[in-house]
Amino acid sequence: MKKYLLAHDLGTSGNKATLYSTEGELVKSCVHSYDMLVSNNNWVEQRPEDFWNAVCVSTKELVQDIDVNDIAAISFSGQMMGCICVDKEGRALRNALIWADMRATKEEEMIRERISEEDFYHLTGHKISPSYGGQKLMWVKNNEPEIYENTYKMLNCKDYIILKLTGEFVTEYTDASSTNLLDLNKLEWSDRLLEVMGIDHEKMPALLKSTDVAGTVTDEAAKACGLVSGIPVVCGGGDGVCAAVGTGCTKEGIAHSCMGTSSWISITTEKPIYDEEMRTFTWAHIVPGYVLPTGTMQCGGGSYSWFTKELCKYESLLGEQQGVSKYDLLEQEINDSKPGANGLLFLPYLIGERSPRWNPKAKGAFIGLKMETEKKDMVRAVQEGVAFNLGVVMDVFKGKGVAIDDMIVIGGGAQSDAWLQILADVYNINIQKPNYLEEATSMGAAITAGVGVGVFENFDVIDKFLKIEETKTPNTDNQPVYSAMKPIFDEAYFALTGVFDKLSEFTK
Hints:
Helices cover 39% and strands 21% of the residues.
C-alpha cells in the first residue's frame, strides 16, 4: 500500500508544501515564497511561473528522503477568485490577477446594468464584485483584447499547476464557484452569466469534482519536480474550502475560521444561506451534498501583519536582542491593555473590503486616538477590529437561525492566545485551537486526495488528522464592553464611507 499523500497550498505569500502519511501524520513541510505585485492602488498580480517554480522546488525538498513510488496521490489547495489566462499550449499569457485585485470596477457596473443583484446572488451565491475571476476575465477582454482572444482557458492558481503536472485544462466546483460564472444550484457553467459578462463558454475549463483524478504526472513534470510519472493528481479545492475539510467541517452545522492574510468564517450546510443584505456568500463544497456559506474579509490577519511590520520595529529589534519573537512581546502588550483598547477602534479595511461591507474603496483607520493612547492599545485595537468585522458575519448566520457554539480557528493569527480570547469574547462562543494551524488547508487537500484515490473511504478520516489542543471560553466580564463597542464600530464605518470615496480620488 502507498504510504504518502503530497499536498500543496498555494497561498498569497507562498506555497506551503506538505507530505502526510496515510495514517494522518505530518511527515514534512516547507514553504517557498513568491512576490505579490501591487500597482495603481488596487491592481494585485502574481507571476504564474513563480507558482510553478515554488511547487517544483518545494516538492524536491519534500521527497528527497522518501521513495517517490510510495506517493499515493498529489492534490492542491489554492488561493481563489483569480484569473490566469493560458493559451492552447498551456502558457500563461500575462500575470495572474489574484483575489486581492479590485481593478474590475467598471465591469462591475456593466454587470449591474444587465442583471439584477438579487438574480445574480441567487444564481451564484455571491454578490457582483470586482473580486471574482469572471469579472477579472471580463476586464482582460475589455482592456487587453489580444490576450483575451488568445486565451484558450481561464484557470485559477491550483488549476494552473494541475495543467503543468498533467497537461489537463480542468477546474472543480469550489474554484469554479469563485468565478461568479457557476450556477451554484446546478453546478454547471451558467450560460446566462457568461452572456451577461460577454465571456465565451469555450474559454472555461472542464468541470470536475474535487475528488476526481484530473490526470497523472507527465514525464516532463516528473523531471521538473523530482517525482515519477504516473502519480494520480486529484483536483483538490480552493483554500477556503480545503480549510473546511482540514478543520473537520464536513457535516451540517460545523464552523471554522481562518485568521490568515484574508480572514473568514465558514459553516457547512446543506443549502446556501442567502442574506437579504448580501453580506455573506456561499462556496461549493468539496464534500458532495453540502455548500459552504462564508464571510471573507480582505485583510484580517493582514491588518495585524501590516501593523507589526510598519509600527513595531522597536519590538522587532528588542526581540532580536532578547532572542524572542516580536509577537511574544506584542502579546504582552495586548494583555496589558484592556478590552475595548481604552476607547480605541481600528477599521481593518487596508485593501478595500469584501464581506461584510463589499466596498473596494473602504480604508483603514484608527478612531479614538488621544494623548493617553499607548501602543498596547493600538495593537489590541487591531485585533479587536478584525473580530468586530468578522462578528458581522456571525450575526448574519445567527440571524438565519444557525447555531454556532464552537469554532475551530486556524491560520497564523491563531498563534496569538490573546486574539483567540478576543474572538471568544466578541462572538460569545468557544474558540478551539487545533494541532495544525498553518497546515489545515493543505491537510484538507491531502484528505481530498486520499478520498479521491480510495486510500480513505470518506471524509470521516479527519479524526486521524485533527486534534483540539486548547479551547478558549468567553469571559463574561468582557461581554458588556464588546457589546457596547461593536455597534460603535459599525457606526464608524458607515459614517466614513463618504470620506473613503473622496480619499480614493487621491490614490488613483
